[in-house]
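Hi team,

Filling in the usual template for the complex we talked about on Friday. All components are listed, including any nucleic acid strands or ligand strings, so the model treats them as one assembly.

SUBMITTER: L.P.
PURPOSE: interface mapping
COMPONENTS: two
RESIDUES: 682
SEQUENCES:
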Amino acid sequence: MSQKKILLVEDNEFNRKIVRNLLAKQPYELLEAHDGEAGVAAARRDRPDVIVMDVQLPKLSGLDATRALRAEPETASIPIIVVTSFALSGDDKKAMDAGATAYLAKPYSPRQLLDTIRRMAGDA
Amino acid sequence: MARHEAGSPGETVGGSPAAAPGFGERSAQLLLAHTPLGWLVRAVARMRSSVHFKLLAAFLLVALVVALVGVISLEIMSRMSAQSEAMHHAHERVTSAQEAQHALAMQMNYTAMALILRDEATIGHILKENNRLNAMLAEVEETAPSEEREIIQRIRGAQGDVMATVADVANLVRDGKIDQAMNLQLRSGSPLFQQVEGLVEQVVRIEDRNMARQRDATTRANRHAIYLMSGLIAASLLLALLLGFVTSWSFILPVRQAQTFLSRVAKGDFGATVTVDNRDEFGELAAQMNRMSAELRRLYDEQREAARQLETLNVQLARASQAKSEFLANMSHELRTPMNAILGFTEMILDEIYGEVPPSLRDPIQDVRTCGQQLLRLINDVLDLSKIEAGRMELSLTEYSVQEVVETARTSLRSLAEEKGLEFTAEVSQDLPAAYGDGKRITQCLTNLVGNALKFTKQGRVAIRAGLDGERVVFSVADTGIGIPADQLDQIFGEFRQVDASISREFGGTGLGLSITKTFVELHGGAIWVESEPGRGSTFHFAIPLRVPEAPATEEAA
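RESULT (copied from the run log):
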C-alpha cells in the first residue's frame, strides 16, 4: 500500500526542514519543490494527495500557482493548504479566492499544520 | 478648454465664413475679388481715419451729389421755362401777324362793301380795320429783326397809299360818284391792296418761320435736358451705390474675418491670428483679438504643462504607493519566515519529535520559545504600526462571538497569571447576540489590555468583563496593579509612551500595544478610556458597535 503524498512548495530551507522533521514519523511521503513553477510541475507529475503552498515564492507566486493548478482538471481537486504571512488584510480572502482549500498564517504551530494536513488527507 | 490640437498655431484667417453664401453674397465676393472695387474697398479700409469719419464722409458725399443734381435740374427747369416763354412769344407774334392779315382782308372787304352799301358805317369799319392792322403791325414791329422792320415800314408806306386811295374812294362814294369810286378802287385800290397783302403775307411767313425755328430749338433743348438729367441721375446713383458698397464692405470684411477668427478660437484653435486691411477701429479690434488669442494660447500651454506635471506627479505617487504596499508585504514575509522556523523547531523539540528531551534541556528550550514568542509579538506590533502609518490598515469584518474573544484572551494568558499567582476571572453577559467586526483584532486589543494588566500587577487580580450597552459591546479589564498618575492618563494611548522610563526598564515593552489597540478600537468606530488610581489599580474600557458598518481603511496623509 503506497503512502499518501504530501507536496511542500516552500523556498525557505529551514521551514522545509521543519515540515520534513514534522512528517518524518508520519505515514506520508514528502515531496518538496523550491519555487512556484517547480511546484506546479511536481503537482502535475506526481499527483500528491495534499499540497502545502507558501504564498511568497520565487518564479511563480503561491496564489498564481494555486490558480494554475485549479485551472487544470488533473490537479483541480487536490486539497491545497496555503500558508500566508498575513501582511495585509484580505490575504486570507485572496487565498480562498485563488482556490485554497484551507489556509494557515505564519508563524504557525507545527502541530496545527499536521492536524490540517491529516484533515485534508482524510486521515483526521 | 481646447478640445483639439490647433492645426498650426498662428494660422491666418482672412476669408469669408464657410457657410453657404446667398446670391447677393457671392456676387459681392466676385466684385471684390476681380474688379478694382476690391482695391477701392481695401483703400478705404486702409485709411487711418475713424469709422465715424468714413461714414460721415460717405454720406456727405452722397448729399453733395444730390445737391448738385438738384442745382443742375433747377437750372435746366429755368431754361425750359425761358424756352417756353420764347415759344409763347413767337406764337403771339404769329397771331398778331395773322390778325394783321385778317385786318387787311377785312379792310378790303369793307372797302368793297362800301361801294355796295354806300354808308358811313361801312367806311367807319374800313378805318377801324386800318387801325387794327396798324396795331398788329406795331406789336410785331416791337421785337422784329431789322429786315422785318423794313418790310413793315414798306407796309406802312403802302398802307398810307391805300388809305389815301380809300379816302378818295370814300369821298367819291359820299358824293354819289359810285362808278368813279369803283374805277378808282379797281385801278388804284386793288393793286395797292394786293401789294400790301403781299407784304403782310411776307411778315406772316417770317413769323411762321420764326415760330418753327423756336419750336425746333425747344425740342432740341428738351432732348438735351433729358440726356443731361438722365446722365446726372445715373451718375449720382452709381456714385451713391459705389460709396455705399465700398464703405460698407470696408467694415463688413473685417467683421466677417473677426467672426471666422472668433469661431475658430471658440473651437479651441488658440494662437490663430486674424489680419485685416483696416487701420481704423476695426484694425484696432483685430489687433486686440490677436492679443487675446495669443494670451489664450499662452494660458492653454501653461495649463497643459501644469496638467502634464500633475500627471507625472500622479504617476510618481502611484508608484510610491505601490512600492509601499510591496515593501509591507515583503517585510511581513521576511520577518515572519524565520520566526516560523524558530518557533516551529522549538515546539517540535519540546513535542519530542526529535526524541526525548533531557530535563536539563527542557528549561532553556522553553526559554528560547518564550523569547521567540515575545519577539514575534514585537514583530507583529511593528508591522501593524507600519501598516497604520502607511494608511494600509483595514479591518476584516466578519461575524464573531464576544464569548470566544474573551475566552481566547483568557486562554492565551492564563499561564502567565498562574505564574504570577494572580486571580484571573472573566465574565461575559449571557445572551450576547452575534457581533460583526474584526474579531481577530478585537481579540488582539483585549489580549493587549489583559497582558498589560497582568504585567503591571504584582498581586491581586485581573478581571475581564464584557457586556452590552445599548448598541455597543463594552469590554473592561480591571487590575490591582501599580496604577497610572492622573496627569498621564490622557497620554497613555500615545505611541511609544509609557508612564516613565523606569517602567520600561522594570516591565519591558515598547508602548506600542496601547496605541495600536486604540487605533483598532477607533477603526471600529468605538472609544477607549481608562480609570486609574496610582497604587490601587486601573480599569481599561473600550466600547465598539455590536455590528460595525463597513469602515474605510485609515488614509493618513502620506
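MY TAKE: The first strand of chain A starts at residue 4 and ends at 9. The first helix of chain A runs from residue 13 to 24.

Thanks, L.
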